[in-house]
Design brief:
The complex is a heterodimer of chains A (199) and B (405). Chain A is built from four helices and nine strands; from the N terminus they run ααβββααββββββ. With 199 residues, chain A is of the alpha+beta class. In chain A, a hairpin with a 4-residue loop joins strand 8 and strand 9. Chain B is an all-alpha fold and 405 residues long. Chain B has two domains: 278 residues, Cytochrome Bc1 Complex, Chain C (Up-down Bundle); 108 residues, Helix Hairpins, CATH 1.10.287. The chains are: A alpha+beta (199), B mainly alpha (405).
Amino acid sequence: MADQADQSRRNFLYIAAGGLGAVAAGATAIPFVGSMLPAADTLAASKTEFDVSTVEEGQLVVIQWQGKPVFVANRTAELLKQVDGHDDKLKDPNSEAVPAVQAEWMETPEQRKYRAIKPEYLITVASCTHLGCIPLYKPTTGRKDWGDSVPEDWFGGWHCPCHGSFYDISARVTNGSPAPHNLHVMSYKYTSDTVVVIG
Amino acid sequence: MLDKMMKTQLFAWVDRRLGLEEIIKSQLTEYPAPKNLNYMWNFGSLALLVLVLQILTGIFLVMYYKPSAELTQGGFTVAFDSVERIMRDVNFGWLLRYMHAVGASMFFVVVYMHIGRGLYYGSYKEPRELLWIIGVIILLIMQGAAFFGYLLPWGQMSFWGATVITNLFGAIPVLGEYVSQVLVGGFAVGDPTLNRFFSLHYLFPLLLVAIVGGHIHALHTVHSNNPEGIDLHKPEEQINFHPYYTIKDAFGVGVFLLVYCYIVFFNPQMGGYFIEVDNYVPANNLQTPAHIAPVWYLTPWYTILRSFPDKLMGVVAMGGSLAILFVLPFLDRSKVRSARYRPMFKLMVIMFFIDVIVLGYCGHSAPTSVLKVVGQIATGYYFAFFLLLPLVNKFEKNKPVPEGI
């Protein structure tokens, strides 16, 4: 009997059955991997309300939004001047590289430069875009306050202690940093003169 | 004693149903091992011992450990407090935890010696390529298990180490963000991360046991290499594994336990190398410690990561430095196994060992501009060692290899 069997027909059936079985097994992986994605309550659009007037002039605070650390910096007029003059040393001076470094409120070139709705209050995600450490705030220029942890022509901003990325006072990453992008910004709006709703 | 036991009726009853005599003979009492193995061949059995110790202490620690990042009234977290409770209140909890934490480091000490032995004496060469490759898989799973376990105490180093490593996956083009979300279970390392790492920290040792079984099976198919790196054919060149090597391994276990117990009882933190001081500070997601370094056994790869100014390049290089171990058996074209008879290779491999220690030192230290350059040179040699192997045997003059031992 065996030699009468149509082998090519059998092989087709083996491959078809085996192939479908493999597809089914692959589909079974969906709920398993899916279960590892952020759960609904984690995803639930969480907003954070914050009163920026609680931040003193020149001060930086770290608040929490969706479990992520967020910088709120109150930049003095002096610090705001440090934004200019080093565009050639930045990877992405106008924050155009990826969606995460820009927000819908960035309408004017001014807002792109200061990366803020009100120039004095900079609000960004505080995770270094390299590997997620929180950079240290080193706002004054030069090496006077920071020693050789910053470059000689330091124009003030942030220094990530983990792998040595530098960001300027508008949280824009400098050339030669391991971090690929500027610190991320998010959409936020002012509901009064000083209260901001993030998210 | 074993022969006497094997003559009893009970043994005969079991043997008829399990084929035990056949297993004992083929794997122990009549399993041929080279008679010239030196003490470098002790580390395999020591690794098995540490694996058993880790699983045993781990199972008992889980009876008290709680994987939750929820805040407690004291202002810490459930996980952090449960570890402190194990240290202070649980009977012998301090011992179990120190055995487990020191065991993790000792596991890598022993396995790195084992790998170094394999490199020096050419144990990865024909016909032991798969034995070596299975071993590399074991190394990767060990590193994974150690990484998952390190998050569990929920200290500062736990938290920021996990943040850095899960962010590494973000560098993968297209899929990166998705992969790191699957790992973290949210937008930042948090409670869901702690729970899944705990689950995986339990899974990986089970995988390890299965794959170690495969490693030993492969070993017993091709048999042990030896310091001369030659194939042995004559019966007088070999001795039975039991009792000769069981007794030698037992001696090794005695020496190992002496060192292990000294560290567990007198110096469990090993000056911050085995348990980092910063990890006694509870995790704070709003403050990165001034200096982040992984535990010593991961620092060589961390240096390779840091040596590149570009995120993707660094991640690729780090992955490549581990992946290249898989193809080592095919890169080394020399027929001579042991470095004893390969003068150039001997120099290269000893420099490689020093190189890995230099990489480890750089990764453990705070980054300075000098160490960065040193790390980059060391990274360069790490890859050069492997990439020069296909060429070196063209220039190398081997010393005469002995016919037998």
